[in-house]
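Worked example 2:
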Amino acid sequence: MPEELTLQLESVSVVVTAEFHNPSILNPDFLVSRQIVPEDWTVSETLTTPPFSVVKYDNGVEWSVDQSRLTVSEQAGPAFDGLCRVHSLAIEYLTKLPHVPYRDLGLNCRVSMKVLDAHSWLLKRFAPPWLQGERIVRKLSPKFVLDAGDAECHCSLVDGQQNSDGYVIADCNVHHQGLQNMESLCAAIARWPERQGWISQALDSLMVKDVSG
């Protein structure tokens, strides 16, 4: 029988590209005054410049923006279900800045799955039989582009070996192209719980489903 797949969410992020973002406005005071971030959050690091700005909080939430890309991310976030803080934060930001010439949206997550030997597991699962016994293969990182209906999911798998523990890391990006207004971006971000369930099913097909028969 196939092994049970246990997903651990390592990080999650929202990326919004634009014809032109204004990095110089991103700072802790701006985020609080626009009621995007609660005023009781503690800032651990901040940098504001015309080409690039970043604001990090001690709860793991991080904002960064350059002239083409806004990223809201959270490390070691909540369990792999439901709407995360970064999605609500991104929606608040976009709502307060509706007239930016936005372009594309990426809903991203990094998920880890514990296995006994990540390298051997990846070879056995994805490499052709003639390659599985080759010691010359030091690393295998399969990549997939999946049809997610009105979006495209890019998924890459890597060996995340840590000391004696084995992990397979899945980096997933649900890419939405051409969402050029605030309303469509917010609607797509709000669908993250649905996308999360879809990603879980896709990873189950890629990594757990028995293909021996």
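The longest helix spans residues 192-207. The mean pLDDT is 87.
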